[in-house]
């Protein structure tokens, strides 16, 4: 067990949920999900450097919206890992943030998973993957997927992962002004369901969606994309409907809210079409910025030093 003295940098992807089926609220406040995660090629990087105490810094266009105290998921990951190993979390964590903050793309979760892997490597712990995944689940429902990446079905509250097949797809993401709180979107989902008075069915992964995802057929996937949180996100942020429409008018095969939003995701036929959709979204004035990405992307990865 020898710990490298040089800094360790981990690259970690954002996610989009191509199916997000949400069940009724559980007694613990969480919702059971059938959550088909897809990692996309928008990345944060977390660098762990030996230090006297645990500190966090962040750079990037949204850096001012990222907490630098112990509530940062990267700091929490380092603390939990150090406590389990019986050592001090003597590390400086620097986050190069490219994933939209509070955007429904699991940016904080990504940094938690990246910091965990970076610290595990820096401290030479070689923690087994199953144990790393347990720590990820303790950090948040999306964090296990950020560690493994690719494409996976998440059940339970989203933390129990089964890998699924995925061909290549091209995406545009429209970044909105301001974020949406994930708990607030789930609460709005509950409120809308109660107002509608309908029974919420058990969440089930769609066989048609899994087949379309595996085939790499963008038209087939476009026909079955589904996010049960979308009505709740639109209820809290009605102007997102204009962004969704602008992307479809601009040539996207399909549009949906990414996870709990407010980032919107546009599935495109190919890389060339994605450029055109991004330009149309920018010209529409209905979003703050656009990002082009492809999927699937690898999970948290240590970069060569
Ligand atoms: C919307 C998604 O991003 C889809 O992947 C996730 O379900 C959210 O995952 P996350 O941000 O990691 O969420 P967590 O940190 O685990 O939980 C934050 C809050 O979101 C709500 N929450 C989250 C996950 C879940 N399956 N049911 C929930 O109701 C709960 O109010 C919870 O207190
Ligand atoms: N490393 C981090 N990066 C960004 N936000 C963080 C981080 N750590 C903690 N947070 C807090 O988490 C909140 C949600 O941020 P995040 O970017 O993870 O949202 P999200 O992408 O909507 O999450 P999800 O898709 O998992 O629901 C932020 O408003 C911030 O207060």
From TrEMBL:
<dbReference type="InterPro" id="IPR020568">
    <property type="entry name" value="Ribosomal_Su5_D2-typ_SF"/>
</dbReference>
<keyword id="KW-0547">Nucleotide-binding</keyword>
<comment type="similarity">
    <text>Belongs to the GHMP kinase family. IspE subfamily.</text>
</comment>
<keyword id="KW-0067">ATP-binding</keyword>
<dbReference type="InterPro" id="IPR006204">
    <property type="entry name" value="GHMP_kinase_N_dom"/>
</dbReference>
<comment type="pathway">
    <text>Isoprenoid biosynthesis; isopentenyl diphosphate biosynthesis via DXP pathway; isopentenyl diphosphate from 1-deoxy-D-xylulose 5-phosphate: step 3/6.</text>
</comment>
<keyword id="KW-0414">Isoprene biosynthesis</keyword>
<dbReference type="GO" id="GO:0050515">
    <property type="term" value="F:4-(cytidine 5'-diphospho)-2-C-methyl-D-erythritol kinase activity"/>
</dbReference>
<feature type="domain" description="GHMP kinase C-terminal">
    <location>
        <begin position="210"/>
        <end position="285"/>
    </location>
</feature>
<dbReference type="InterPro" id="IPR004424">
    <property type="entry name" value="IspE"/>
</dbReference>
<comment type="function">
    <text>Catalyzes the phosphorylation of the position 2 hydroxy group of 4-diphosphocytidyl-2C-methyl-D-erythritol.</text>
</comment>
<dbReference type="Pfam" id="PF00288">
    <property type="entry name" value="GHMP_kinases_N"/>
</dbReference>
<dbReference type="InterPro" id="IPR014721">
    <property type="entry name" value="Ribsml_uS5_D2-typ_fold_subgr"/>
</dbReference>
<dbReference type="Pfam" id="PF08544">
    <property type="entry name" value="GHMP_kinases_C"/>
</dbReference>
<feature type="binding site">
    <location>
        <begin position="100"/>
        <end position="110"/>
    </location>
    <ligand>
        <name>ATP</name>
    </ligand>
</feature>
<feature type="active site">
    <location>
        <position position="142"/>
    </location>
</feature>
<feature type="domain" description="GHMP kinase N-terminal">
    <location>
        <begin position="72"/>
        <end position="150"/>
    </location>
</feature>
<keyword id="KW-0418">Kinase</keyword>
<dbReference type="InterPro" id="IPR036554">
    <property type="entry name" value="GHMP_kinase_C_sf"/>
</dbReference>
<dbReference type="InterPro" id="IPR013750">
    <property type="entry name" value="GHMP_kinase_C_dom"/>
</dbReference>
<protein>
    <recommendedName>
        <fullName>4-diphosphocytidyl-2-C-methyl-D-erythritol kinase</fullName>
        <ecNumber>2.7.1.148</ecNumber>
    </recommendedName>
</protein>
<feature type="active site">
    <location>
        <position position="15"/>
    </location>
</feature>
<keyword id="KW-0808">Transferase</keyword>
């Amino acid at each position: 067990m020898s710990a490298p003295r040089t800094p360790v940098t981990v690259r970690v992807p954002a996610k989009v949920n191509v199916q997000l089926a949400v069940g009724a609220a559980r007694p613990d406040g969480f919702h059971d999900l059938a959550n088909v995660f897809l990692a996309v090629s928008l990345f944060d990087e977390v660098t762990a450097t030996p230090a006297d105490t645990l500190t966090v810094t962040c750079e990037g266009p949204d850096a001012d919206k990222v907490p630098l105290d112990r509530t940062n998921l990267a700091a929490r990951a380092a603390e939990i890992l150090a406590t389990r190993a019986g050592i001090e979390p003597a590390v400086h964590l620097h986050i190069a943030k490219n994933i939209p903050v509070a955007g429904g793309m699991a940016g904080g979760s990504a940094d938690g998973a990246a910091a965990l892997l970076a610290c595990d490597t820096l401290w030479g712990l070689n923690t087994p993957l199953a144990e790393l995944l347990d720590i990820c689940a303790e950090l948040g429902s999306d964090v296990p997927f950020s560690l493994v990446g690719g494409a996976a079905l998440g059940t339970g509250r989203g933390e129990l992962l089964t890998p699924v097949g995925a061909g290549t797809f091209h995406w545009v993401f429209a970044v909105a002004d301001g974020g949406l709180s994930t708990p607030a979107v789930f609460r709005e989902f509950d409120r809308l369901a109660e107002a509608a008075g309908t029974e919420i069915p058990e969440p089930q992964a769609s066989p048609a969606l899994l087949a379309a995802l595996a085939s790499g057929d963008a038209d087939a996937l476009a026909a079955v994309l589904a996010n049960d949180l979308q009505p709740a996100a639109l209820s809290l942020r009605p102007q997102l409907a204009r962004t969704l429409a602008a992307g479809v008018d601009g040539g996207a095969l399909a549009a949906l809210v990414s996870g709990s939003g407010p980032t919107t995701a546009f599935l495109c036929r190919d890389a060339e079409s994605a450029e055109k959709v991004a330009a149309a979204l920018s010209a529409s004035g209905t979003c703050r910025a656009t990002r082009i990405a492809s999927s699937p992307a690898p999970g948290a990865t240590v970069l060569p030093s």
